[in-house]
Design goal:
Blueprint: H1 4-21, H2 28-38, H3 47-59, E1 63-72, E2 78-86
Antiparallel strand pairs: 1-2
Helix pairs in contact: 1-2
């Protein structure tokens, strides 16, 4: 039986695979749209889990927030979605 720590490591690995496959800035919506290409569709996270994973990667300084994108809904209202970029360590 996998522990929570093992599951978290798997999700971090999958999330970084998806992020590496995306060219340019990304948001949680873009991650979910591209999840099936780079990680197992069976383990596609719900938005609350994805938000926690993004927060953890940001705290580890693996991704950095760069701004917001305004998203329009069907009812013509808009709301901001945070945009991130992947940070690579220089050697």
């Amino acid at each position: 039986m996998p522990t929570n720590k093992d599951r978290r490591k798997k999700y971090h690995r999958w999330l970084l695979q998806v992020i590496d496959g995306i060219d340019g800035p990304f948001s949680s919506r873009i991650i979910l749209e591209n999840w099936d290409k780079y990680a197992p569709p069976r383990y596609k996270p719900q938005i609350n889990l994805l938000a926690n994973l993004i927060r953890q990667l940001s705290a580890k300084k693996l991704i950095r927030r760069i701004g917001e994108e305004q998203v329009r809904t069907i009812s013509h209202s808009t709301y901001p979605v945070p945009m991130f970029i992947r940070v690579y360590e220089e050697e």
